[in-house]
């Protein structure tokens, strides 16, 4: 079963590059940059990856990101993720990065984006993986700070497909960022937003109506509002669902209680993603395996999830078609499953 989930062609649409910082790499970069970590060893770090909720995770995630100082650090982080993604047959990936996590520590925006961008270019050339970049605003910071970040991003417009919204959801509704998102769309960026991870269905409505998002990140709490579920199904607004993350951050008590299968059965365009794989116990294939095992997903479900990952991407129609043909021929050849 494991090889099927590694081999099936897929796209990943919800991965925070800072969340792919494996503890081994964190220690390697900390040594190189002479930075003291809040952990004494890789084992101690892994033991600390036990979270009560989103905020308790974010505190550790931002502490980890503090080791990233130089362009080479951002390059190495991104390159390592791309290698892992390719090993799980991710053909296309749409990667979030959080510039404010770094600019607030005095790291220039261009150091961050140049390191990531160079790795993405090498990923295309040397590994054959297609990618897009999504700039996320930290919603616990002010709208003014988000606007300043958007201004810093304008010279790099060609390298950034969309803007998004992440970090502490509760108390920081999408409406706080309406003006920034208006400006981002005016400048030609697509938009996405984390909504309905810990927040209510109302946050999802706001993301759709005020921020005009193309898709919702997480969105699992849409289930609170039958009208919203109907709307998401009719409009086929994709949800980038992250099953292992949701269990680790206690959005659901266990994988068996996750609503991925329910949302799929309701006709929503749901996808499976890893969110912060270094912290949540697995990359995209492990998310598929955990979901399949706990929720009894059948071959049709798995095919639909993989197909949705391409349909929900920011690729062109032709590119989507090409990748879906690739998926279809894989399914035909893989009769053992
Ligand atoms: N930043 C990194 N992972 C996140 C998540 N799951 N929710 C909100 N912000 C995040
Ligand atoms: Zn996320």
Question: Key terms for this structure?
Answer:
TIM Barrel; alpha/beta; binds zinc ion; 337 residues
Identify the strand order in the major beta sheet: 1-2-3-4-5-6-7-8
Number of domains: 1
Query: How many beta-strand elements?
Result: 8
- What kind of sheet is the major sheet? 8 strands, parallel
EC number: 3.5.4.2
Cofactor: Zn(2+)
GO cellular component, one term: cytosol
Catalytic activity: adenine + H2O + H(+) = hypoxanthine + NH4(+)
Overview of this protein structure:
It contains 17 helices and 8 strands. It starts with a helix and ends with a helix. The protein is of the alpha/beta class. It has an 8-stranded parallel sheet. It binds adenine (ADE) and zinc ion (ZN). Zinc ion is lined by residues 14, 16, 166, 194, 217, 275.
């Amino acid at each position: 079963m494991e090889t099927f989930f590694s081999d099936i062609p897929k796209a990943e649409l919800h991965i925070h590059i800072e969340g792919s910082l494996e503890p081994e790499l964190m220690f390697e970069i900390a040594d190189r940059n002479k930075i003291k970590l809040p952990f004494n060893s890789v084992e101690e770090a892994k033991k600390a990856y036990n979270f009560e909720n989103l905020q308790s995770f974010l505190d550790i995630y931002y502490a980890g990101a503090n080791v990233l100082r130089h362009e080479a650090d951002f390059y190495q982080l991104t390159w390592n993720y791309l290698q892992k993604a390719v090993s799980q047959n991710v053909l296309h990936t749409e990667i979030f990065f959080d510039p404010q996590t770094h600019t607030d520590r005095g790291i220039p925006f261009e150091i961050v984006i140049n390191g990531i961008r160079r790795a993405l270019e090498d990923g295309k050339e040397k590994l054959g993986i297609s990618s897009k970049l999504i700039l996320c605003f930290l919603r616990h910071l002010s709208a003014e700070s988000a606007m300043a970040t958007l201004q810093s991003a304008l010279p790099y417009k060609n390298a950034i497909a969309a803007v998004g919204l992440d970090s502490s959801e509760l108390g920081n509704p999408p409406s706080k960022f309406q003006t920034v998102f208006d400006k981002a769309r005016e400048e030609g960026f697509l938009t996405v937003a984390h909504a309905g991870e810990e927040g209510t269905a109302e946050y999802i409505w706001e993301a759709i109506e005020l921020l005009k998002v193309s898709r919702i990140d997480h969105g699992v709490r849409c289930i609170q509002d039958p009208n919203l579920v109907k709307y998401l199904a009719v409009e086929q607004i994709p949800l980038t669902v992250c099953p292992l993350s949701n269990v680790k951050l206690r959005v659901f008590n266990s994988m068996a209680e996750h609503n991925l299968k329910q949302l799929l059965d309701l006709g929503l365009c749901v996808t499976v993603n890893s969110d912060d794989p270094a912290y949540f116990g697995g990359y995209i294939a492990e998310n598929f395996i955990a979901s399949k095992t706990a929720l009894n997903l059948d071959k049709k479900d798995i095919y639909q999830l993989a197909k949705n990952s391409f349909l929900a991407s920011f690729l062109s129609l032709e590119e989507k078609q090409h990748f879906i043909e690739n998926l279809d021929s894989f399914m035909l050849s893989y009769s053992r499953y």
